[in-house]
């Protein structure tokens, strides 16, 4: 499918039976379609993180027709080594049965995982390949397989471990930093957020600091309130200062004597003489 032939909204999600019984079978026997969705590429000449850009179509899954290159002629195992690593098979091949004809085996499926480095000391990545091939008992004019490439979902813990490993590698080998393609292999094009997200430990530490600051502020305000309550209240100051105790006249004391005895009444001018 050329760039001038684009189908907006088109999604390519074929079933395993469709991949084998239609796309691969037509390719092997030379029955080409007017619209070629799957391209022909020797994927082992490229590392997996470069393959999405070489695929004709795909968002999370990328498909290729791949020629089988064997190590020792037709009887040897196919060579699956790339420049930066190798593809390693996991488990045994699985037979794909036709849904319409349950007794007919239409092909085989092999699952492989990409390892960085060289065997047997390579490091496992999250790149996965499903290799579909025609049944072994078929005589085929072309030794071609159909490969589906995708990335396995990676947990946050694994991403943190890979970021820590990358930092250690940069410290031990400062003169040979990882290339951009190798960095993409660690975190992926869709998950390239190692430089933007914060680790849970950092977030927890920040939250703990906020709580501690809040507690310290609360303690400071409480101490201020206690200090204010402990300060003695200002006593009421009378304008005339302290006054002597009011003295009441005894029976038989006249008003003039009362004025001379009580300072409260010294400033009063009697209108009439009052007798007790």
From TrEMBL:
Keywords of the record, alphabetical order, are: DNA-binding, Nucleus, Transcription, Transcription regulation
Where do the NAC domain residues begin and end?
A: 6-152
What SUPFAM superfamilies does this protein map onto?
NAC domain
Q: Name one GO molecular function term.
A: DNA-binding transcription factor activity
Location of region: Disordered: 215-241
Principal location listed in the UniProt entry:
nucleus
Record flagged with keyword Lyase: no
Superkingdom, according to UniProt? Eukaryota
- Tell me any Pfam family this protein matches: NAM
Q: Which GO terms describe its cellular component?
A: nucleus
Q: Where is the composition biased (Basic and acidic residues)?
A: 216-231
Q: Does the keyword Iron-sulfur apply?
A: no
What compartments host this protein? Nucleus
What GO biological process terms does the UniProt entry carry, in alphabetical order? inflorescence morphogenesis; leaf morphogenesis; negative regulation of cell size
Question: What PANTHER family does this protein map onto?
Answer: NAC DOMAIN-CONTAINING PROTEIN (PTHR31744:SF79), PROTEIN CUP-SHAPED COTYLEDON 2-RELATED (PTHR31744)
Q: What is this protein called?
A: NAC domain containing protein 36
Q: Organism source for this protein?
A: Arabidopsis thaliana
> What does the record give as the organism's lineage?
Eukaryota, Viridiplantae, Streptophyta, Embryophyta, Tracheophyta
State which gene encodes it: NAC036
């Amino acid at each position: 499918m050329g760039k001038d032939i684009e189908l907006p909204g088109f999604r390519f999600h074929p079933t395993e039976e469709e991949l084998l019984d239609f796309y691969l079978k037509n390719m092997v026997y030379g029955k080409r379609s007017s619209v070629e969705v799957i391209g022909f590429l020797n994927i082992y000449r490229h590392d997996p993180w470069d393959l999405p850009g070489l695929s004709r179509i795909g968002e999370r899954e990328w498909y290729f027709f791949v020629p089988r290159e064997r190590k020792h002629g037709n009887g040897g195992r196919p060579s699956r080594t790339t420049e930066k690593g190798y593809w390693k098979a996991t488990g045994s091949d699985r037979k794909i049965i036709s849904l319409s004809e349950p007794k007919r085996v239409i092909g085989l499926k092999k699952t492989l995982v990409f390892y960085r480095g060289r065997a047997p000391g390579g490091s496992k990545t999250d790149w996965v390949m499903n290799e579909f091939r025609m049944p072994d008992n078929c005589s085929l004019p072309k030794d071609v397989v159909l490969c589906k490439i995708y990335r396995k979902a990676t947990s946050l813990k694994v991403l943190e471990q890979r970021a820590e490993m990358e930092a250690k590698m940069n410290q031990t080998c400062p003169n040979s930093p990882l290339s951009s393609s190798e960095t993409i292999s660690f975190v992926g094009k869709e998950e390239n957020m190692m430089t933007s997200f914060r680790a849970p430990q950092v977030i927890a530490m920040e939250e703990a600091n906020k709580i501690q600051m809040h507690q310290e502020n609360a303690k400071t305000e409480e101490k201020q309130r206690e200090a204010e309550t402990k300060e003695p209240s200002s006593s009421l100051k009378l304008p005339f200062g302290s006054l002597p105790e009011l003295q009441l006249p005894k029976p038989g004391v006249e008003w003039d004597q009362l004025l001379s005895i009580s300072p409260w009444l010294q400033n009063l001018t009697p209108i009439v003489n009052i007798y007790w």
